[in-house]
Write a structure and sequence with these properties.
alpha/beta; 6 strands; six-stranded parallel beta sheet; 253 residues; Undecaprenyl pyrophosphate synthetase
């Protein structure tokens, strides 16, 4: 172990000791950003290598979350905007995501897909649906994989589902307007039944949500990390938890 690695290891232990008495977020959302830029920074022309490297990092993250006591993790792997990428990049990326989901199933995680699966290729959608069905009985950390996900589309889908539900009961628009509140919409989101994220982490230095969990993150705390996702370390994760613990959560007030 080099001197730098030793210093980081000692720093990790110091952070762990500090966090042992601090509040831990129940639900962590992660925007896994920077795979392509990591590949280019490494001088690799094939950006799919960056996506594969990023997929490898996810298993590490989930272990860190489980050790810390996190109960839910939501990973944004592919946005609806990403679906318009060049086919030469999109197809390998979808293959990486399929392989990642299969690995998560094999590793024993409880996997829940979220997003517009109808927009995805049949093979990708089937892998996600099979993962949900085959792991639904598992306990412990729940891993939401957001693929073909967009925050605005999620809200639109929720409203559409709500209208369809009330129409099926013979209710009129006027009757729905009389009773509609935020909880009715929340019950139709992709994350229905789950707590909203306490902490949202984004890597690569970008400081925006880009549509990630727009509804659910109204009272979330945010942590932006300079590292590209493949370079995200356990010490970076612990720093995010430390930052969260230091916040005075006022829930909008």
């Amino acid at each position: 172990m080099g001197v730098r690695d030793l210093v980081y290891k000692l720093y990790e232990r110091r952070l762990e000791r500090k966090l042992s008495s601090d509040p831990i977020p129940r639900h962590v959302g992660v925007i896994v950003d920077g795979n392509r830029r990591w590949a280019r920074a490494m001088g690799i022309s094939d950006v799919s290598h960056g996506h594969r490297k990023g997929a490898d990092k996810i298993s590490e993250l989930l272990q860190w979350c489980r050790e810390a006591g996190v109960e839910y993790v939501t990973l944004w792997l592919l946005s609806t905007d990403n679906l318009s990428r060049d086919k030469a990049e999109l197809e390998p990326l979808l293959g990486v995501i399929e392989g990642l989901v299969l690995d998560l199933v094999g590793q024993g995680w409880h996997v829940k897909p979220m997003g517009s699966l109808d927009l995805l290729p049949d093979r990708t959608a089937r892998v996600l649906k099979d993962a949900k069905e085959s792991t639904s009985h598992r306990t412990g950390l729940i891993v939401n994989v957001a693929v073909g996900y967009g925050g605005r589309r999620e809200i639109a889908d929720a409203v559409r589902s709500l209208l369809q539900e009330h129409a099926s009961k013979g209710a009129s628009i006027e009757e729905l307007v009389e009773v509609l509140d935020v909880e009715h919409i929340a019950e139709h989101l992709y994350t229905r039944g789950l707590p909203d994220p306490d902490l949202v982490i984004r890597t690569s230095g970008e400081q925006r949500l880009s549509g990630f969990l727009l509804w659910q993150s109204a009272h979330s705390e945010f942590y932006f990390c300079e590292a590209y996702w493949p370079d995200f370390r356990r010490v970076d994760f612990l720093r995010a938890l430390r930052s969260y613990a230091a916040r005075n959560r006022r829930y909008g007030y």
